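Sharing in case it's useful to others searching the archive later.

Someone asked me privately for the predicted structure of Manganese ABC transporter ATP-binding protein, so I'm posting the question and my answer publicly. Question first, with the sequence:
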Amino acid sequence: MLEVGNLAVSYRGLCALDNINFAISPGQIVGILGPNGAGKSTLVKAMLGLVPVSRGKIQFNNRPLRQQLQQVAYVPQRSQIDWDFPITVQNVVMMSRTVRIGWFRSPSRQSQELVRSALERVGMWEHRHRQIGELSGGQQQRVFLARAIAQQADLFLFDEPFNAIDRTAQDIIFDVFRELKTQAKTLLVISHDLGETLNYYDRLLLLNRHLIAMGPRSEVLTTANVQQAYGHDLSLLAA
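And my answer, the predicted structure tokens:
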């Protein structure tokens, strides 16, 4: 169980998030929605301890999440990654194993097999020796998904994984999401897409500095909630 209680985050005296409360059971895919500046990425970064929290608690399985970050796989926005860094696809995925094996130890056979299996699962094993910056946007996202899989985490956080990717990559990512769900993993996915992909989520979390609504799509994306979050009708946003 992931629990966030009375969470607040401020930057330079400005409120980024306030009074955020929710709980997510294992085996759920939760989509985080809201306009630009709503605090979606801030929420994820606060959970990871990447930004200071003004108040509140973030617990996973009844323990502070920051004490068990090895159980968290995080895939940031593509714009936050240095695609010119000279590293191969295979080594990007192998980096997920360093928490378990240590920075200066050679990868175990188990780690090598996990990396290969993860890359094969997302259709990127044949590209394992290519530099990460040589790939298309969809291929890059599949590599970082493979890295998350190889980490063998219990909680997965994805920040806009569907931006600037092709349909093949999108389908692969959602297939993997469903597999992780059957393994009782917990997935939080930040998204701007208000179209058909919303059907893939078990629950939606609608945010605009405050938690506006959380639950199934029919309860969250009401006219009143959408107007409160975005200031516009849903039909205009999805157009």
